[in-house]
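Technical note accompanying the year-one report. For the benefit of new consortium partners, we illustrate the data format agreed upon in the data management plan: each record pairs a sequence with a C-alpha cell string. No post-processing was applied to the example shown here.
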Amino acid sequence: MGRKKKIGTAGRFGSRYGKKVRSMVSRIEAIQRQRHVCPRCNLPYVKRVSKGIWLCRKCGNKFTGQTYYPKILKEE
C-alpha cells in the first residue's frame, strides 16, 4: 500500500475541492497560526484569538486586524 500525501492542514479534506483550493487553505492557515509581532512591545507573541482579534501573550495587548493576519499600520 502506498502512502497518502497530505497538504499540511488541508489534508483533512482528502481529495475533495481540488488541489488549488486545498493549497490556498493550507497557505492561509500556516500564515494565521504563526506568531506575529506585537505593535506595542515589538515581540513575536501575537496569536489569533478569533476572526480579526489578536492578542499579545507577553504584554496583554488585544487589538483588531485582518481576518487571517494582523495588518499593523505604522504611524510615520
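Partners are asked to follow this layout when depositing records. The longest strand covers residues 46-50.
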